[in-house]
Amino acid sequence: KLNSIFSVGVGGAGLEYQIKKNSPEVKIVCSEFAQENVSLLKNVFIEADEIIRFDLLRGDWAEIKQKYLSESSVCLMYRVDASFSDSQWREIFLNLHKTKIKNIIFIPSSFLTLRSIYNRKSRELKWFLLQKPVAFSGFLRTKKTFESYWDGLYNEEFYEFGGIKGFFLSIR
Asked: Which of 20, 94, 123, 136 is the most buried (most CB within 10 A)?
């Protein structure tokens, strides 16, 4: 039975709030990179068991495991994928594996598909015709690309979590 969640890059912590509201017995530790966000969250998400600053790429996963992750815990990575390059994601998963983080729920922002390419290019054409600037807002990836990050490190099960597709990963 799941007793705690360590969630990385929580942003406004909307998902974590809903989890805590529906399962108050589950300990939820939220992490965020920017100290300003940590301070703001501490003032508004008072239901969280703890809110800490943590750098997903360079942080000390051994400390996180020791303090927050037990055998019946999960590390939640919800919609944090767009901010990191492919090589950075591989490094993150190598660090998680090296530290023996056992269970991870990884839910990407979206999957790159033919339909998503068509929709994106249609919007870009519209913006071009309207002379609106286009800004980089993160990386898009296929399901296969995501799977390459933990290949050989974690077993995966593909799930739909409340209408959003993602992965449950367990250490090999």
From this structure: 20
